[in-house]
Every structure is written in C-alpha cells, then in structure tokens.
Write a structure and sequence with these properties.
The chain is of the alpha+beta class. It has helices at residues 3-19, 49-53, 129-138, 148-155, 169-172, 175-181, 211-219; strands spanning 24-27, 31-33, 39-47, 60-67, 70-78, 83-88, 94-97, 115-118, 141-144, 161-164, 185-187, 202-205. It has 2 domains: 3-97, 2-Layer Sandwich (Fructose-1,6-Bisphosphatase, Chain A, domain 1), CATH 3.30.540; 111-219, D-Maltodextrin-Binding Protein, domain 2 (3-Layer(aba) Sandwich), CATH 3.40.190.80. Strands 2-1-3-4-5-6-7 form a 7-stranded mixed sheet. A 5-stranded mixed sheet has the order 9-8-10-12-11. Strand 4 (60-67) and strand 5 (70-78) form a beta hairpin. Helix 3 packs antiparallel against helix 7 (211-219). The longest helix is centred in the N-terminal third of the chain and has 17 residues, at 3-19. The radius of gyration is 16 Å and the shape is globular.
Length: 220
C-alpha cells in the first residue's frame, strides 16, 4: 500500500458518497461501507502496486459496480498507457486508446493453441500450484505479469486465457463486465460465476469453448 493508493481511494469514495449516498463501497484500502446495499462499488485504486512503485507502466485502476452481488459495470483504466476499458452488463465493451483498437475476444477453442497469462507464480499454494502447472503445461505459451492489464489484453483478443488465484473482490469485480462485453467469460476455476463469497480463484477466457478444458485441468 502506498499513499497514492489511499489518496486515490479516498477521492473515489468521496465522489460516490456525493452522487450515490445510498450505495455501498468495498475498497482495498479502507474496507467496507454499507456493503449490504443493493448497489455496491468495488475499488482497487492501484492494481499492480509493485509495478507502480518500480516505475513499470502496467498498473491500473479498477472500479466495479455490483447489483445485488452481481457485477454489472467495470472500468479498467491504465493511466500510464492512456488506455481504458468500460464494460456494462448486456452491452459491448468500449475501449479508448491513443492507438485505437477494438475490444473483441478472439476464437481459441483449445488450450494447445492458447496464449495463457498469469500475474505471478507466487499466487499459488500447495493446493493450487499443481493445478495451474497442468494448465500451463497444456498451453501453447505462458506469460507472467501484467495484473489487470492482462485482462484488458484478453478483451482485445491478444491473450486467450488468464489464470490467477488469491484474488479479492476488488481484483475481479471490474473485470467481469469488461471481458463478458468483449465476448469472453470470467469465472472461478470451476467455471462458476464470481461472487463476493467466491474462493479467490479467477479464470478468464476469450472463447467460451475453452472453458471446459481449462476448468477440468484447474479442478485437479
């Protein structure tokens, strides 16, 4: 946690309180406020703090909105690269960048053809590491790092699957509408919808046809 993390979350919380005083907030830095409300904002002011403090441009801001526990709006904002993905449930994801680009996941029905991404091997414990290793061994290629940026790349059709663990609601709430609005799926490792009581595993695929194969391997 840095002072920038805390200052950014305070600013976002203040804006929400001003415009939507009856809404709840769950944030990485300051915890829960009215988390039992029908509408709850989920905030990660700087996703990728390690990248931020070491000058790497892959950190981002994640803002998600849950309605009765279901992700309905998501924002991935990459300030250093000036890229922003906005997802709203039932609508096509929007993407803003100085370089253009269309948010659309690409077809990839088998793991043998897939570009797999993961934030860090340090996410895995004795139970999850062998299951991830099985998926990694079956994939065409695996890249590390990127935090939320990897999910944005999946929504642009540049990555086929992202597998992470030990994820908190502020890590995934914004991702679900963005990925699903680009034609992909974002679930836990068992293929179940992500909810506040999920187990911390996250699996995003650009092609829904890939989900059964990779879920089977991650199930162990």
């Amino acid at each position: 946690m840095t002072e920038a993390d805390k200052a950014a979350e305070r600013t976002i919380r203040a804006l929400i309180a001003q415009r939507h005083p009856d809404h709840g907030v769950i944030g990485e830095e300051y915890g829960e406020t009215n988390a039992g409300a029908d509408w709850v904002w989920v905030l990660d002011p700087i996703d990728g703090t390690r990248a931020f403090v070491t000058g790497r441009p892959l950190f981002g801001t994640l803002i998600g909105l849950l309605h009765k526990g279901v992700p309905v709006l998501g924002l991935i904002d990459q300030p250093a690269t000036r890229e922003r993905w906005t997802g709203i449930s039932g609508q096509a994801t929007e993407f803003r960048s100085d370089f253009g680009g269309t948010p659309r996941c690409r077809p990839c029905a088998t793991l043998a053809e897939a570009e797999l991404s993961c934030t860090s091997p340090d996410m895995f414990d004795a139970a999850t590491a062998p299951r991830f290793a099985a998926a990694k061994a079956a994939a065409r290629r695996t890249t590390w790092g990127g935090d939320c940026y990897a999910y944005g790349l999946l929504a642009l059709g540049l990555v086929d699957a992202v597998v992470d663990a030990t994820m908190k609601p502020w890590d995934w709430a914004a991702l679900v509408p963005v990925i699903e609005g680009a034609g992909g799926r974002c679930t836990d490792w068992a293929g179940r919808p992500l909810r506040l009581d999920s187990d911390g595993t996250v699996l995003a695929v650009g092609d829904a046809a890939l989900l059964p194969e990779i879920s089977r391997l991650l199930a162990g």
